[in-house]
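Sharing a chain and its predicted structure for anyone who wants a worked example. Both blocks are below, sequence first, tokens second.
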Amino acid sequence: MSDPKTEETATSSPASHPRKRILCLAGMLLLIALAIVRTAVTTSLDSFTYDEGYHIGAGAVHIRTGDFRLNPEQPPLTKLWVGA
């Protein structure tokens, strides 16, 4: 009688693991790309609101001084990006 574990490992090809890894990575990259495209489309349809100017000004201060205390509700990366 043969061991079912050895039969299982003998039938699964080692080449299938890299293929699964590549497919998984491609799927994740596709999801990230689709999320970026979706965000770009939806934000391009938004209008400029009354407080956006303050966010831009705060971003410019953050770039110039490195002080993130002005307008603390926005994330630092957004402030640096908008300020630049």
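Comments welcome. Helices lie at 4-11, 16-44, 52-65, 76-83.
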